[in-house]
Design a protein that fits this description.
The structure holds three protein chains of three kinds. Chain A is mostly helical. Chain A has a domain of 171 residues: MetI-like fold. Chain A is built from 14 helices and no strands. In chain A, α3 packs parallel to α8, α3 packs across α10 and α12 packs antiparallel against α13. Chain C has two domains: 38 residues; 226 residues, MetI-like fold (Orthogonal Bundle), CATH 1.10.3720. The longest helix of chain C is centred in the N-terminal third of the chain and has 34 residues. Chain C starts with 8 loop residues before the first helix and ends with a helix. Classes of the chains: A mainly alpha, B alpha/beta, C mainly alpha. Chains in contact: A-B, A-C, B-C.
Amino acid sequence: MARRALPGFGLSLGVTLTYLGLLVVIPLSTIVLKTSSLTWAQFWTVVTAPRAVASFALSLGASLVAAAIASVFGLIVAWVLVRYEFPGRGLIDALVDLPFALPTAVAGIALTATWGSTGVLGRYLHAIGVEGAYSRLGIVIALVFLGVPFVVRTVQPVLVQLDPRLEEAAETLGATRLQAFVRVVLPALRPAIVTGFALAFSRALGEYGSVVFISGNMPGKTEIAPLLVMTKLEQFDYSGATALALVMVISSFAILIAINSFGRRSRKRDLHRKRPPEERPTLPPPATIVRGHV
Amino acid sequence: MRRAMRLTKFHGVGVVSLLATVACNGSKSAANGDGKTSDIKTVELLNVSYDPTRELYVELDDAFAKQYRDTKHVTVTIKQSHGGSGKQARSVIDGLEADVVSLGLAGDIDAIADSGLLAKDWQTRLPEHSTPYTSTIVFLVRKGNPKAVKDWGDLVKDDVKVIASNPKTSGGARWAYLGAWGHGKKTSGSDEGAKAFVKQLYQHVPVLDSGARGSTTTFVERGQGDVLLSWENEAYLAQDQAKDQGFEIVVPPRSILAEPPVAVVDRVVAKHGTAEVSKAFLEFLYTEPAQEIIAKNHYRPRSKTVKSDLPELELFSIDDLGGWGVVQKTHFADGGVFDAIYTK
Amino acid sequence: MKRAVGETPWVRRSLIAIAVGFFVLFMVVPLGVVFAIAVRDGIAPYLAAITTPDAKSAIKLTLLVAGIAVPLNIGFGIAAAWSLARFKFPGRRALLTLIDIPFAVSPVVVGMMFILLFGAHGYLHSSHKIVFAVPGIVLATTFVTIPFVARALIPALEARGPEQELAALTLGASPWQTFWRVTLPGLRWPLAYGAILSTARAIGEFGAVSVVSGHIRGETNTVPLHIEILYNDFQYQAAFAVATILVVLALATVVLQRVVEWRAERNRV
């Protein structure tokens, strides 16, 4: 691409760098600066304290489980939306995006009210001794709610472009429907599913607003990592809070980079595969836009 | 094409007008504390308070404003902020410009004093350790008291679930913890016994909210637990708010005297020019009309003449446990007793 | 898509049932609960709850904050898209990833960063009230909405290629003319899309604002914070009533997105 033929490079790059520098780099550096007031030994103690480890493990575990569940159901929803016609399909298709747009505080109180022991759905769980709120299950439920749209929106476009003739060919050659699905469809969808999973997972990791209402916040049991950071803040333990925050930011960032490079690699791979000519979309799939914790 | 141009022009106009509004709002709030116009003076105070006092201060602020307008011809508006006591203290230290603070325990105001925002001898500047009202920790139980909870010891019965908040973030939670500690110490006679009791107690707590209000919500609205460890005034409030659920208040024979103090934040009032009004507000809290509002809101008034319908019980104070300095360090600091009993 | 070979109707119907059932249980019922609780005491209390002075100032503050954050990020998004989509330079990849960082930072941490910067003991402390006041809320909200517009514009601009702009320039248009009349019109739909998303996000931001806000009633509470306050004040019906405002806004967002996508499709044909 011509650097000189097109004008505006200096201005646009300047604005971009200044904006990011002021609004992103400088604030983030405070976390590093504050943490660096600890010695390595102190840092290690804070980050490996049983309560901290428990909260990391919980955030990590719950996010993984939730992303997995979201992937399964997201795949089913995407499949059903693309391949079948049924009443209400358009409505569901539109509503899939709702968790993106819904403020997490609202999601938090709504989910708690629904799945708590007195809630419209939670009461049935309570009857069989399962707590839908104030439990790890509650956390997973909230994270699934947030993660499903990522999976649906990453899988859908790929599914739409998947040539059904490939599956038909497999079946005319003697494969059963299930075999055709597993051996033709799934591999083609795999990059999308993995990306959706990773997006749902990274979103779930830092989630605060919705989880904090439904979780119960028991140290060691249902205390998610962001809440522990909050607690340390409220105890005037700034460097402890930033130490934990640093760990969280670095790991989320690493996952983000992994997702991006994976996406890039699978796109390059796709370009080499023969595909029916398609329009290049001017809108990226919403999933790649809307990652984020609220 | 033209639509795009209009769109961006619209954005431009929008940004400019919004920035103008912000600028206006900004300058307005800057003129707050020293708004002096001819004969009608208006003053604005920020009262940073702890969780359960929301309803209390709505009334107190009103009453004070009325009285001050009548006597000094100055219109006072008091803005309120509420949250967990520790959290509020931290916000003030970090720059939340409170003219006065009314927090859940002296330890939190001490922390603010340590940061230089107010004098270290703040607790001697107003009567009764700068605490115009007190409270205690009681139990809120469900209708009929099905688990027959009468005293602290009943809280650790096998099938009893207790709702409490996190001592690390909530003032009320710290008082509750200390109430339990006091009981444990008295019955066992030793610190070890107290620690064992408190440890047992927290094992019966399934949900640990970060503030006293959060715990009440969990107990009342979400139906969790059999007993709520609560500020006394909060228990009455919950009872009123959820009349149809028929909650009962169980006052143990012995509990801790919870003293939530108030203070003027010297540095801030100096900056805002609100020292006189702030001091007047806090002094107002000790007067008869204010004490009556206090009693009405189920707090224990300091005034001997104002009638309170709250039950008598044996109360021990923080001084019996060594004072906040000692208690904070031993129990609630990082690595303290609470952390120890929580490590699995 | 009807096909000659496919799943048995039995499989098809169960999959649909699972998908719809899951969707209804997880997504629709909670929203219904919000409305149900909001009006459980009747319509009058519902209306009263959303028109209290505190509620009104919360709505005003939310709109003000979004009204600043979104245009700022639109400006940034355009600049970033131009520099990153039209030019290649060392560090371009890193810059792209840098734009994504707000996604990786938990909201509590976002709030904490600004307190570390502008708080009374912060690195850039001044006598101006930034945190625990409106500017802090604006900063936090702007931070979390940085990536939306940029990430909508960059692929769009990349996909369009510079041919039209180069053509315009060779035909004698000035750079700014080219930008306003050639580039931006083509970006109209991605821009709208990104703006809608970032507005929805700015309105709903909770965690970061909660940390920097100070919770001064009637002054530094946005609508999500106001909901939390009502919730904590035992005013559940009122909390859910105010929440319905945000639910309606979210639904509107979703509808608008659909409209934008539809218009973009139509334009392409």
